[in-house]
Amino acid sequence: MKTNMGSTKNGARVPHVRNRFTSMDIGMNSQILPDMLINFALINITDRKNEGTNTIDGNWQADEGRRYRDNVRIYFSQRP
Fold it and tell me: Which domain of life is it from (predicted)?
């Protein structure tokens, strides 16, 4: 099955068509202190990449491969 990626860019005259695929993601968070929360996510665990992204035949986009996201949230509150 293929997906039509919309309008053309890069001087191409046809829209880019690419194969569909599914990626798997996982994430977690932890409340390490009463006012601190940490988050972590692993996106595209299998590091699957779509073939055919090295051509300029329309509105292409590069697949990013495996990515990591993390953040720390610290809540500041006024104490009486």
Answer: Bacteria
